[in-house]
Amino acid sequence: MENQKLRKQNKIWISINYLSLITGILLFYIVKNHHMPLTILWFEVGIIAVLLVSFYKAFIITKFWKMVHTSSKDLDEREMQVVLNALRYAYSIFAIICIIIIYAFAIAENQPIDVVLAGGLLYFAHILPVGIVGWNEKNN
Amino acid sequence: MKSRKIYNRIAVLRQERGLTRKELAERIGVNFQTVGYLEREEYNPSLDLAFKISECFNMPVELIFSPKPLKPLSEEIMELKNKFKGD
């Protein structure tokens, strides 16, 4: 019972983390493209705070970040299998998302991919395998 | 390739010996969560890990793991005894 609750909490924090990343990037582009007042960007500070808190709750406390980013020598055979599977899925998902974004920007023709999106994608590339592990792993 | 389910007696043997999951995990060199997966039969161990577990419990590997659902250990021992008596 306690385990199911913990799993559910993990999934909620992982979803919050992904949603705050998407919201942050979208807000930046909405403000930029619609020439809205830059003060709206202060919301970004709140979004980044949510992103950091959810990152800590979803990946650091649960040790999923450590599991995915540690040397394979420190993992047992099941963990190694779990991490390899997550990396395989993450690679496919990330490649598909990158292609969609590149095509979308090519079609839009109005702007190059800037540092905000590039940074967001870099962060996404790192949290994607951890997110997959966190989503599927049971706590005990 | 989808592997078949391997049944085991790890949970019973661990409880019999009064070990926690963490203690067993330390003895066989895995994370305690992996012991949970093994006990729930959600993960099939490698041959190496299966032998480590059998060495830890000081029992033959075939008494701990089986591709068929396992009977209680007492029942199995009685069957073995009867088999040897018959021989």
Can you put this structure into words, describing what you see?
The complex is a heterodimer of chains A (140) and B (87). Chain A has helices at residues 2-33, 42-60, 64-69, 77-108, 115-136. Chain A has 140 residues and is mostly helical. Chain A has one domain (2-136). In chain A, helix 1 runs antiparallel to helix 2 (42-60), helix 1 runs antiparallel to helix 5 and helix 4 runs antiparallel to helix 5. The model of chain A has no long low-confidence stretch (mean pLDDT 90). With 87 residues, chain B is mostly helical. Helices cover 60% and strands 5% of the residues of chain B. In chain B, strands 1-2 form a two-stranded antiparallel ribbon. Chain B is globular. The model of chain B has no long low-confidence stretch (mean pLDDT 90). The interface between A and B is small, with 9 and 14 residues.
Topology summary:
The complex is a heterodimer of chains A (140) and B (87).
Chain A: H1 2-33, H2 42-60, H3 64-69, H4 77-108, H5 115-136
Helix pairs in contact in A: 1-2, 1-5, 4-5
Chain B: E1 7-8, H1 10-16, H2 21-28, H3 32-39, H4 47-57, H5 61-64, E2 65-66, H6 73-86
Antiparallel strand pairs in B: 1-2
